[in-house]
Q: What sequence folds into this?
């Protein structure tokens, strides 16, 4: 049985994942409005991945007899000056999410809840990828800053991203 403290923390994380989804959907729409079709697609894949993260936590809580509470999702920003700025915010945001999972891991250890600690390992690994992907895109955007052709080519590259369901969801056939 999940402790109340852990249930509250997991519910807060579910909300944070949906907020992340909202943030990336907003970035996707902003890029689309500015003619950056590929970058818009990249963020729309990110939007789906964040929903997967929430779903994994929801499924986990349900499997442990926890009570999932879906709280309101706070408003997100709607406009960025450039894809560079959007990716700067993405990296900063993912670093905050990493810190949230570190805190969740600490709490799970404190509660001697090893099943939760194990489930969280997937997220800890995922955050390494999230941060390094954002950093990689940021580096590329910095390299082509001010170069319209470079941005055009990079936008095409970002448009090639494919969505694959997160491993824990794929494992259960979703
Ligand atoms: Mg996430």
A:
């Amino acid at each position: 049985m999940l402790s109340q403290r852990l249930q509250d923390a997991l519910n807060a994380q579910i909300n944070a994942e949906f907020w992340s989804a909202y943030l990336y959907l907003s970035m996707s729409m902003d890029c689309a409005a500015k003619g950056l079709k590929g970058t818009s697609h990249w963020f729309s894949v990110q939007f789906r991945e964040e929903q997967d993260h929430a779903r994994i936590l929801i499924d986990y809580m349900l499997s442990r007899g926890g009570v999932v509470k879906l709280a309101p999702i706070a408003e997100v920003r709607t406009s960025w000056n450039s894809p560079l700025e959007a990716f700067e915010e993405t990296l900063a945001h993912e670093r905050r999410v990493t810190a949230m999972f570190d805190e969740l891991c600490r709490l799970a250890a404190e509660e001697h809840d090893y099943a939760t600690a194990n489930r969280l390992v997937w997220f800890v690994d995922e955050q390494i990828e999230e941060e390094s992907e954002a950093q990689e895109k940021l580096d590329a955007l910095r390299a082509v800053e001010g170069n319209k052709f470079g941005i055009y080519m990079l936008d095409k590259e970002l448009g090639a991203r494919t969505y694959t369901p997160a491993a824990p969801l794929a494992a259960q056939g979703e």
Observations:
- The helical segments are 4-33, 37-63, 83-110, 114-143, 148-158, 167-171.
- The two ends are 25 Å apart (CA to CA).
